[in-house]
């Protein structure tokens, strides 16, 4: 039956196609052309970056920038990773990002659970406090934050970065979590209460596992934001051993100003993890971006 | 049930860590930035209270107004470019083959750090070996521009990089909103003889007006606090031609150790962002939420 149906749909479609005038088809062709030009504009600079990361300086300065690397210089990557210390920046980015993401998602889940499932008077006020936080420009907080961390001896300490990332990502994370919590049926939790389950067990063993899809969405969005963050690290961290990739790249490029191959390799190293995450989790990322703004 | 779910101790345990963090690291600092703006302070030594002096100086500071002008120019460009993103999203919404893939390709630059983007575009704009000038030379253009070193072009050049970074972000938002429009409405219009352009302009766009409003706020406020890309690409130069409010604040505080004055600039930035958000919401508030 369904087979017949699809068959019918297909023949219907082809009739439609035949009916389409030539003008329509040219119009469609032009549309595609525009869309593809935009796609090339979006993607070609990255392809170009990848190519020049594999070139020698003679190629960069002597040959056409559009030429393919004649003899791929993978050594550029080794040079950036080992000599340029990019390996250490990379490691810092990984552990600082991961720690902040775990902290943010856990704290945000606690808050969202308390706001949507528990009964208390200041519920709405607390929610408002987090939501207004979405509108605060981070630069307006920079000087007092720097002064505060200086006073409590946290300047040039990764903890300052982790705490700031967590605080500034809580609003968005809570907002995305809220949408999911509101749609989640309460019956399971209510039944658990009836059975005498403690609130902590409900949270950790029932609610948290039920929210895994949205947790992964918020986690990946947080991960990208933290991985790419620049101004806090640039302001709070001064020792090389604590710098993350974004600031480390700046350092590195300052030293190897004219070595395009090494610079390209460094940039590639910094964007490859995000690209990999994107190829695996693109749907989650798209979902997170849409959820994070449409409801705002 | 009620007793378990209104346990004060548990509520405090669950909400206090996050509340303390956001109060201490977001709300207290924005109040302090206004307060520090009343001080003469080099960031290390003691503060001297000087009243409104910094704020009065700010109002008469040509450099501040110039950077504010650049920020507003970027905001205007960004808002105008939303129309382009909206058109692309409307085209993609017509169930074209490959539209899902195209949307994802458009999004890729948005996932990269502003620092990486800035470094990449520095190379693209490189006057001698960059991609852009080499391309122009292929087309036969002589005297290719020096882009970031040209005070007349620098802001536009940066803006192209900003478009590159954010196009996919807005297209994703618009696409998600367009997906929420019930198929039946579009179908009804089609039966009534509306062509795709009429459907897009008269039905789809009004239906997502709320989301368009949000993106206008995001684009304007986002542009006003623009920093990373400009800081890395030009540092505000040449000769202040690409200075924006946030980069001016950063320079005053962490470059010239005028922490008091920098705080005043930071507070001005906060006030401008909040006022504009409020203004846009106010101006568009009488649009009733559309029900379908």
TrEMBL record, chain A:
ABC transmembrane type-1 domain boundaries: 90-281
Main location: membrane
Protein name per the record: Raffinose/stachyose/melibiose transport system permease protein
One matching Pfam family: BPD_transp_1
Source lineage: Bacteria, Bacillati, Bacillota, Bacilli, Bacillales
Gene3D superfamilies found in the cross-reference section: MetI-like
Residues passing through the membrane, by range: 30-51, 94-115, 127-150, 162-182, 202-225, 260-281
Location relative to the cell: Cell membrane
Keywords, comma-separated and alphabetical: Cell membrane, Membrane, Transmembrane, Transmembrane helix, Transport
Ranges in coiled-coil conformation: none
Taxonomy, superkingdom: Bacteria
Family: Belongs to the binding-protein-dependent transport system permease family.
Bilayer topology term: Multi-pass membrane protein
UniProtKB/TrEMBL annotation, chain B:
Its membrane topology: Multi-pass membrane protein
Residue span(s) of domain ABC transmembrane type-1: 71-280
Gene3D superfamilies recorded: MetI-like
Subcellular location: Cell membrane
Recorded family membership: Belongs to the binding-protein-dependent transport system permease family.
Entry protein name: Raffinose/stachyose/melibiose transport system permease protein
Matching SUPFAM superfamilies: MalF N-terminal region-like, MetI-like
Alphabetically ordered keywords of this record: Cell membrane, Membrane, Transmembrane, Transmembrane helix, Transport
InterPro entries on file: MetI-like, MetI-like_sf, UgpAE/MalFG_permease
This protein's record includes keyword Membrane: yes
Organism: Aquibacillus albus
Transmembrane residue ranges: 12-38, 68-93, 105-122, 153-173, 207-227, 259-280
């Amino acid at each position: 039956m369904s087979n017949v149906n699809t068959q019918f749909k297909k023949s219907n479609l082809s009739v439609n196609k035949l009916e389409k005038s030539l003008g329509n088809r040219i119009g469609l062709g032009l549309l595609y052309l525009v869309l593809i030009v935009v796609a090339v504009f979006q993607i070609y600079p990255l392809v170009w970056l990848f190519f020049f990361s594999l070139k020698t300086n003679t190629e960069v300065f002597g040959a056409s920038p559009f030429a393919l690397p004649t003899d791929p210089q993978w050594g550029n990557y080794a040079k950036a990773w080992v000599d340029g210390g990019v390996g250490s920046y990379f490691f810092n980015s990984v552990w600082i990002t991961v720690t902040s993401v775990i902290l943010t998602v856990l704290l945000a889940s606690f808050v969202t659970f308390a706001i949507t499932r528990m009964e208390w008077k200041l519920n709405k006020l607390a929610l408002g406090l987090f939501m207004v936080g979405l509108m605060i420009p981070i630069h307006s907080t920079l000087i007092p934050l720097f002064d505060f961390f200086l006073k409590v001896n946290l300047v040039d300490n990764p903890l300052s970065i982790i705490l700031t990332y967590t605080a500034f990502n809580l609003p968005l994370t809570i907002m995305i979590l809220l949408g999911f919590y509101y749609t989640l049926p309460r019956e399971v939790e209510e039944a658990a209460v009836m059975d005498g389950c403690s609130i902590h067990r409900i949270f950790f063993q029932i609610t948290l596992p039920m929210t895994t899809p949205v947790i992964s969405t918020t986690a990946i969005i947080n991960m990208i934001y933290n991985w790419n963050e620049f101004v806090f690290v640039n302001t709070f961290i001064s020792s090389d051993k604590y710098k993350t990739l974004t600031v480390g790249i700046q350092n590195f490029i300052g030293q190897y100003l004219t070595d395009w191959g090494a610079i390209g390799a460094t940039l590639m190293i910094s964007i490859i993890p995000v690209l990999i995450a994107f190829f695996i989790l693109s749907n989650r990322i798209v979902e997170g971006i849409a959820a994070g703004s449409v409801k705002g | 049930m009620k007793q378990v779910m209104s346990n004060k101790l548990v509520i405090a345990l669950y909400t206090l860590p996050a509340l303390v963090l956001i109060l201490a690291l977001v709300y207290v600092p924005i109040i302090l930035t206004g307060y520090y703006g009343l001080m003469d302070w080099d960031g290390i030594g003691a503060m001297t209270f000087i009243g409104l002096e910094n704020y009065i100086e700010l109002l008469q500071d040509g450099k501040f107004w110039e950077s504010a002008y650049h920020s507003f120019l970027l905001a205007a460009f960004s808002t105008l470019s939303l129309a382009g993103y909206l058109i692309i999203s409307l085209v993609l919404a017509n169930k074209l083959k490959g539209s899902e893939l195209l949307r994802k390709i458009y999004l890729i630059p948005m996932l990269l750090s502003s620092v990486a983007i800035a470094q990449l575009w520095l190379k693209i704009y490189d006057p001698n070996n960059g991609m852009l000038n080499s391309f122009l030379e292929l087309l036969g253009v002589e005297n290719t521009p020096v882009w970031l070193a040209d005070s007349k072009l620098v802001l536009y050049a940066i803006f192209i990089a900003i478009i590159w970074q954010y196009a996919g972000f807005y297209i994703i938002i618009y696409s998600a909103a367009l997906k929420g429009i019930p198929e039946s409405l579009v179908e009804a219009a089609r039966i009534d003889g509306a062509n795709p352009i009429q459907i897009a302009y008269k039905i789809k766009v009004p239906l997502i007006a709320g989301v368009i409003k949000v993106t206008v706020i995001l684009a304007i406020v986002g542009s006003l606090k623009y920093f990373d890309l400009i800081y890395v690409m030009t540092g505000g130069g040449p000769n202040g031609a690409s200075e924006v409010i946030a980069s001016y604040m950063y320079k005053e505080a962490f470059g010239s150790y005028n922490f008091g004055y920098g705080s005043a600039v930071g507070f001005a930035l906060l006030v401008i962002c909040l006022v504009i958000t409020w203004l846009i919401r106010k101006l568009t508030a009488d649009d009733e939420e559309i029900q379908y």
